[in-house]
Design goal:
The chain is mainly alpha-helical and 104 residues long. Helix content is 93%, strand content 0%. The longest helix has 76 residues. It starts with a helix and ends with a helix.
């Protein structure tokens, strides 16, 4: 029982000391300001992360747009080359026809 009483007395002393320390307004003010700074830094970090994510997404979209433009130009060039080749064939066939028509 004496050990229990000693423990209670010791614990009360610790509680009183803790209560005295936490009640100091300067310490509480400093702790509050520190928590506010930490929250502000966390918010700023989250904002920076979001901005970086947005920039990365913009870059991805720009790359995708450029790829589509290059594909479009490539298909256009292929189509024009095919048209030229067909036109050359038609011209060649017409020439053969013209050359062969007097022979008939």
């Amino acid at each position: 029982m004496e050990k229990y009483a000693t423990l209670i007395v010791t614990t009360k002393g610790v509680e009183q000391e803790y209560a005295t320390r936490t009640m100091d307004p300067e310490v509480e003010k400093a702790r509050f300001e520190h928590k506010q700074r930490l929250k502000q830094m966390e918010l700023e970090t989250m904002e920076r992360i979001e901005r970086v994510k947005i920039e990365i997404e913009k870059e991805k979209l720009a790359i995708e747009k450029h790829r589509f433009e290059v594909d479009k130009e490539l298909k256009k060039a292929e189509f024009e080359a095919k048209q030229r080749a067909e036109n050359d064939e038609v011209r060649l066939l017409k020439r053969y026809g013209e050359v062969l028509s007097p022979l008939k």
